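DM from R.C. (forwarded with permission)

"hey, sorry to bug you on a friday — could you get me a structure for this? deadline for the figure draft is monday and I only need the backbone to look sensible"
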Amino acid sequence: MSEPAFQRRGLDDVIPVPAEVRPDPAADFTIGEGTAIRTAPGSTEARRIGEYLAALLRPATGYALPVGEDSGEIALLLDPAPDLDADGDFDGAPDESYRLEVSGSGVTVRAAAAAGLFAAVQTLRQLLPAAIDAPGPQQGAWVLPGGEIVDRPRFPYRGAMLDIARHFFTVAEIKAYIDSLVQFKINHLHLHLTDDQGWRLEIDGWPKLTEVSGGEGTGVDGTGPGFLTRADYTELVGYAADRFVTIVPEIDMPGHVNAAQVAYPELTADGVAVAPRTDMEVGYSSLVADKEETYAFVEDVVREVAALTPGPYLHIGGDEAQATTAEDYRTFIQRVLPLVAKYGKRVVGWHEMAGVELPETAIAQYWRIEATDEGTARAAANGSKVIMSPADRSYLDMKYTPDSKPGLDWAGVINVERSYDWDPADRLPGVSEQHLLGVEAPLWSETLRSLTDVQTMTFPRLPAVAEIGWSPRATHDWESFRQRLAAFGPRWRNQGIAFHASPEIPWT
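My reply, with the result:
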C-alpha cells in the first residue's frame, strides 16, 4: 500500500526565493526508509551539516538516515569551483552559494564552502512537506520536487537584532531564536547587550556592571533581570557559528549608559551615583568625553568583548546621544574608533556615528524613518558600507496593527506587506546597491516579556526582510511571497514557534 500523500511542494516554494529555479516534475525524489546521507570526503564540516540535516528529518520520518562518506542518495559535496550557472557567474558571497539538484535517484548539493551546504539544507527542508517539522513520526510520502536550484545571496550581511538589555533573554531562549532565524538564511545576530535599563555581559575588572545592573529590578519596569557570563557568551557564539551565524555584540555609547553609571559613579561628570532607570525614555545619559576614566573603561570593555568575539564586527551604538554635546560626541567617537581597530575589530555604529568623519572600514547602520540622511550618504561616498534597518520597514518591535500587542508605534504600524514592499537600494539618496553591506531587522524589547513575545513580533515579518536581503531584486513579488509565506503556518505550529496570524496572508 502506498503512503498517504502530503501536499506536494513546488521547487520555488522557498523563502527566500532562490536566484534560479528549473523545475522538472518528472524527476521527483522520495526519501524512504533506506535513504542515507553522503558527505564530502574528509570534511568534518560537511559531516556535521549532514548530521544536522539527519537530525532535522529523523523525528517526523522515523527513518534512520545514516550519515557517511561512502554512499547515500542525499549528497552534500564541496566543490572548490561549482558551476553556478552557464556564465560561471559567482556574484554575492561565494561561501553561501550552492547548486541543488533533485532527480529520481537522489539529491546532490554542491557548494564551494560549508556555509553553502548549510544554506542548501535550509532550502531542502522547505521543499519537504510541512509535516517534516513535526516532533514525532508522521505517515506520508516525503517527496522532494524534481529539478535544479542555483542560488546565491544578494547581500553578504543579512541580520536580526535582539535587545537583551531592556529585557534579558536566557542562553536557551537565544539559541531557540537562532534556530528560528537560520531557516531563512539569516547569517548575523546583533545582540544589544547594554542600555540605560541593564548591562547584560560580564566584564572582568568591572564586576558591578552585571552584579548591580544585571540584577533584580533591572530592565524596563524592573521585570527583566539577568546577564550572560563570559562562558554563556562563548557558548552562544559557538552555537551560532555552528549554524553559520556571526554574533555582532553591541556596547551602546556614549549615550544609553545609565546602567553603567549606576554601577560605577566615577563614570558620571561629578562622580555622584545616578538612580536606576526602568522607564522607556531615551537621550538622558552620557559618558563624559573629557575624562580619562571614560576611555580606560571603554578600552577595558572593548578589549574584553573583542577577545570573546571571533566575528569581525563590534558595534558601539552611538545613537540618541542627546545628552552629549556635538563637540563631545565628535571627541568621543574619534577616541573610540581607534580602540576598536586596535583590538582587531571592524566598527559598526548606528548612523548618527556618520556625523563624524569615518574610516572606510567603519559601517553605518541606518535606522531612522526620514527620507534622507546627509551623514550616511557622505560616509557611503567616502567608502563606508551601510547596513539598512529603516524603522518604518524593518523594526520588528513595531505593532502589526494599531490595536495589536505587544509593541510600539512611534515609527508607525508595520504589517507584513510593509515589511516586504521596499528595497534597501532605494531607501536613501546617495546610498545605492554598491554601498550596502546588507539589511538587518532589529527587535527592541521594551514591551517584550517572553520568548513567545519575541517570536510573535518576529514572525511573519522577518522572512520578508530575509528575502529582500538574499533574493535577487528582480524576484521580489508580494503576491508570490504571501502565498509562499502561507505555508509556514503549519511549519511554525509544528516547531512550537509563535507567530502573528496576519489576515494579509492566506494561511494553510
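R.C.: lifesaver. The first strand starts at residue 20 and ends at 23.
me: no worries. Residues 86-92 have pLDDT under 50 and may be disordered.
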